[in-house]
Amino acid sequence: MNPIAWSRLLEQKPLPAAIVDLDAFDRNISRIRERTEKSGKKLRIASKSVRVPQLLKRILEKGGTSFQGLLTYSVRESAWLHRHGFRDLVVAYPAFQESDLEAAAPVLREDPHAITFMVDLPAHLEFLAAQARRLGLDTPLDICIDIDMSYRPLGVHLGVRRSSLLDLASLDAMLGAIARQPRVRLRGLMGYEAQIAGLGDANPFAPLLNPAKKIIKRLSVRDVARKRDAVAKLLQQKKQRIEFFNGGGSGSLDSTLNENCITEGTAGSGFLQSHLFDYYAANRNEAALYVALRTTRAPAPGMIVCHGGGIIGSGEIGPEKALVPVFPAGLRLMGAEGCGEVQTPLLVPAGVTLRPGDPVLLRPAKAGEPLERFREVHLISNGEWLGTAPTYRGLNEEFQ
Known about the structure:
The chain is built from twelve helices and 17 strands. The protein is of the alpha/beta class and about 400 residues long.
């Protein structure tokens, strides 16, 4: 990235704006593809971390046969993406609204296996079956079982709270419920290890915790591998065939793909490399997503104020969830104010000159969520502005 050239390209553009460095983006695709090919597995793309159809298509095209399908975050999003030419859409979260199935019904009548629904409760099966009857869907709905992969040493829960399937007994009961429900068909399994994939172990905002995080991740890698292997053996005993066993994320790709029972990993944030994903000891990707703000005020020497900036990542609240200024080098947020909804003050280091009207570049903590704030992303390659690509919002769709 040549930020000086970028700032010139952005001088006449409306700001705030989201910018994608296509050269870095493509290099990240290549890195992730190489890791996937080396494992002999496949990779599914997490749409929530990209939210730009043009970029999703670019990932799939450049990923070749190593990349397959999308892991989406809502049924409505899946139905909409199908209309934009995407196939093999696995919804990562359970559906429990009639309107979701109504949105999916036209797709399923045309392409019965385009959308796979996530389940972890018998109530999910009952809901899907009832909606299939109501909507006259003759082909059984494809489903994927979400299995809890949290690390629970001595009863302490380390991981996210999502699936109710905490052990083999509950999974076995779920398999029995599926076998008794003719309106669904088990297609795959997902076991997401958030305590590995979502836990940075080189976080500069909380350096004293990094050694403990590394220990937790190392122990959890072994624990997750044992759990997923036991799940695979249970399916073999039941003679239950599946098409895929999905796991991981950008932050745990190597350890996930190293497991024999896993058939596919997941990645999303690693393609755009928002700054939270820099804080992994095993990180190999480079920044590809930026936010540009316009400076509007200079209230004191060594200080500049930008318009906007309140783009905060979700999850546990902390300073690492804010934008991080990267150009000009040395800019710092003010601890007393941080990033504001309508303005963001920045401390300017000695030797750097910024005037009201100049653009500055910052990196978001996460990738997909900030893109809900923008209607388009600016595409830059080799120091040239190539145009824009619409986000979901820019195509008049917002998926909550």
